[in-house]
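Two proteins follow. First one:
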Amino acid sequence: MEKYLLYINGEFRESSDKKTFESVNPANEEVIAEISKATVQDAKDAVDSARKAFDSGVWSGLPREERSRILKQVVDKINENAKRLTELEIMDSGSTFKKAGEDVFLSAKSLNYYSKMAAVDFDENVEGLSKEGVSKNIIRREPIGVCALITPWNFPLKMAIWKLGPALAAGNTVILKPAMETSMTSCELARLIDQTDMPKGVVNIITGSGSEIGTELVTNSKVDKVGFTGSTEVGKIIMKNAAENLKKITLECGGKSANIVLDDADIEMSVDGAIYAGFYHQGQCCEGGTRLLVHEKIYDEFVGKLKEKISRMKIGDPADKKTDVGPIINKKQFDSVMNYIKLGKEEGAEVLTGGNKVGDKGYYIEPTVFVNSNNKMKISQEEIFGPVVVLIKFKDDDEAVEIANDSIYGLGGAVWSGNDERAISVANRLRTGTVWINEYHLLSDRAPFGGYKQSGIGREFGVDGLKEYTEAKHIHIDEIKDRTKKFWYGTVVPKD
C-alpha cells in the first residue's frame, strides 16, 4: 500500500499532527493508499513557502526561457511515468483504462503547451495610444503572486495540470490541494516535480479536508488568487470567503448541459454521440450532455437505437481495456445518484433503460435514461453527476434553444445536424461556454473553457486561461522633450 506525504518548500513531510486518511478503490472498496492529512498549520506553512518563493523572485524573476525549460522537465517526467500514473488514476478514481490513459496523455500535452507559453512575451506596445515623440504606452502581464489551486475528484491529474500549467507559466507560485477522494496522482506529481530543477517553494502540494485546509487557503491574506473546479455550491462558498480581501478567483463549477439532436442529424452518429456525451466517466463530468433534447420527428427511431446500443455497453472492472462503464467514485456519490433515479420515477419520468445497482462489490450503476420527461423536473434541472441522462422531446429549433437555456448553468452543450449553417445558428443562441457541433467533450489547449451563469467565473486554457493568472499593468512613458510643463487640472500643455 502506498504512503504519501505533504510536499512543502521542496520537502516531503508528515502532517503536523501525524494524521492520515485512506484512499479507497471504488471498483472493489479496497484501501490502496495512506495519505497525510494536512492541518491548518500545514496549509499556512505551504502558503508561507509559496509567498517566500514568489517574493524572492526565484521563479517569477527567472528568464521566461528558463521557466519554459523547467516546465518541460515536468512534461518529460509525466511521459516517462505514464504507465504508473494511468494505473493510479484507474485505482483511485474508477476511471476506465481508456479514459485514464487518455487523461495522462492529455495532461502531458496540456503542460507541454504551457511550457511553450511560458517563453512567450505577452507585453505589448499600445500603438493606437503611443505616438512617436509624445508618449509610449506598454501593457505588461505580470504574475498575480501566490495561487491556491483546488481541484475535484473526477479528473485528478488532468485538473491539476490545467491549473498548474497556466499559473506556473505566468510566473506564479502555487499551493495545489486535490480532492481527498483522489489525491494519489497529485502526490505522485509532487515526486516527479521534486526530480526536476523546480526551485523550492514554487510548487507545494498538500492533501486533506476542503472545509479545513481549503478554507484556510481561500481566506489566507498571503494568497493572491484561487483557482477552483468543483460544485457550484462550494464555488459560492469560495467566492464569499475570497471576498473578505477581494482575492482574485477563477471558478469552474457545475453544469447541466443540453445535447440537442436536430431532425436532420445523422441518427447513428448522434446516438453514439449522446452515449459518449452522457456516460463518459460514468457521467461524472461537469460539462456532460445530461439533458438530451431530440426532435419529435426522429424521436422514436432515436430512442430505439439508443436503448439497443446502451444494452451493449460493458460494465465492470475499469482496469479491463474492454470496459465502457466503471464505478461511481464513492458510497456517498453512489447513494446520491440512486436517490436521483428514485426521484425521477416519483416525478413521473419513465426509465427507458438502466436505473439499477450492479454487483455486490464496488459502486456500479447501470447507464440510465429517463423518457417522458420535461425540463421542469429536478432530474432535468439539478446536476446529478452520475450515469443518468434525461431525454426531452422538442418540436423546432426555437423550442430546443428555449429548453437548453432554461437552466441556472451554462458550461457545455452540443448540436447534432447535417446542416452546419443551421447548427451554428442554434449554437449562437445557446447561453453556454462551449458548444460542440457533431462532437462532444473535445477540448483544446488553445481554446477557452468555462461557464456562463452559475457554471463559473473566468476561463481555462489558451491565452485566456494564462491571462487569468496575470495582472495587467499599464506603463505610460512621457517622450515630449522640448516643452514647458504646466500641470493645470491634470493637463500637460506642450511648449509653443
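Second one, unrelated to the first:
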Amino acid sequence: MYYSDYSELQNSNPLAIIRIKIIILAFAFLIGLSVATNIRAEFSATLRGTTNYVWRGFTKSANKPAVQANIDYEHATGFFLGTSASTVNFGDRGFSDRSNVEITPYLGWSFSATDDWRVDLQFQRYIYDGKIFNNQSDYNELYAFAHYQDLFTARVSFSPNYYNRDHPAADFGITGRFPLTETVNLSSGIGYSLARDVLEYDYLYWNAGISWHHRYGALDLRYTQSAFFNEKEVPDRDRWLFEPERLGPTIVFTISFGF
C-alpha cells in the first residue's frame, strides 16, 4: 500500500487512517492466530506486483501498475479468514478525498462435497480509504465457489448494495487450468457481470494466460479483454461519474512472492 507522498496521508480523511490501522491489526491477529494453532491450521501470505489491476473486465488501477498483498488463515475444520489489500486508481484524481487503497477482509468455509468436488462459501467486505468519484463506496459481497480437483472452478457472487449505490449486482464465472509441467500451467476464464443498475452496463470478460511457480515465487502472463452490453440511459443529473473503462485487448504481467 502506498500514498503519493507523506503529506497526502497526513491530510487524508481520519476515517481512512482508522481503516488502515484496523487492517494492520487484522494482519497481526492472523499471524498470532496461526502461530497459536499451527498444528491444526495453515497460514499463508502473498505479496505481488502487477502491471494492471484488472478485475471483472475493467481496470481498478487506471491501466497502471498496482501493489497487492494477501494474508490468509485456514483451520483444519475448513473455516478460513483473511485480508487482501491493493493500491487502486479509479481515474477520479480531480477529487481530493479519492481512494488510493482497497482493503478486502473476508471469511468463509471450505468443505468437500465429493472426492473430486470442493465447495467454498465466502463473505467479503470491500473497504476504501477514501471515496470513489466523491461517493462513499464500501460494500459487501457473497461468494460461492465449486472446484473440481485443481482443474476447474465455477463461481457466483452477489452484492445487495454494489458500491453502496442502492442497487444489487451479480457476477458469474468459470475458470479452467491445465498443467503443462509440475511448475507451468495454462489457464483461462470467462465471466459475465450483471451490474447495469450501478455501472450502466452489463459486460462479458475473459482471459487466458500461462503461469510459472517455484517454491516461494510465481510469474503470470495473461491476455484479457471485455465487451459491454445493455447500456442504461441515465440522465446527467443522476449519473455516478464512475464508469468502467472499456477494456480492449490487454496484456497483464504479475509477479508474486509468498509462503
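SUMMARY FIELD: Helices lie at 6-10, 14-36, 196-199. The chain has one domain: 6-258.
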